[in-house]
Amino acid sequence: LRFDEKVRVVVFKSEVKGVFCAGADLKERTQMDDAEVGHFVKRLRNLMDEIAALPVPTIAAIDGYALGGGLELALACDLRVAASSAKMGLIETTRGLLPGAGGTQRLPRCVGIGLAKELIFTGRQIDGQQAFSMGLVNHTVPQNNEGDAAYQRALTLAKEILPQAPFAVKMGKLAINRGMEV
């Protein structure tokens, strides 16, 4: 995707109804030794960094659960759209873990330090409306019968981006991303 000039916007969605991404398989993780866990977390962090670094806008369409690494995936995207019924949270602390794929950096940039600490410390899950009110998602929509309301809204948002000058959009993303790291 990074090098395909025809790609102008990437929308991340799930094919599983009611779930955007439920995060890592913790049962599988318990079978790993420390070295394997370290390698797994490093690969996951690298994946999220690669998604964040895509030169085109990325949109997460959250039509269901986005927990742990699932929310970290959504946070790696430029824009987020959620169904009001979606459930989101960096729930790792409820499992004795820490968000390891960039959530501790990206969540505070989205919602502010105090709120990010509260959400991470408590492991609280929030719905799409709460996520919208705190600035975690750009848009929230009522879920439809097909279970893809966020995806449909994400497509509408993508269609708003498509007519804009591709180079200007890419440079705008780059300037914002680099400025946020200063």
TrEMBL record:
Highest taxon in the source lineage: Eukaryota
Coiled-coil residues: none
PROSITE patterns listed in its UniProt record: ENOYL_COA_HYDRATASE
GO molecular function: lyase activity
KW Lyase (keyword) present: yes
A Pfam family assignment: ECH_1
GO biological process entries: fatty acid beta-oxidation
Annotated GO CC locations: mitochondrion
CDD domains xrefs: crotonase-like
Keyword vocabulary terms for this entry: Lyase
The family this protein is said to belong to: Belongs to the enoyl-CoA hydratase/isomerase family.
PANTHER family in UniProt: ENOYL-COA HYDRATASE DOMAIN-CONTAINING PROTEIN 2, MITOCHONDRIAL, ENOYL-COA HYDRATASE-RELATED
Protein's name in the database: ECHD2 protein
Gene label: Echdc2
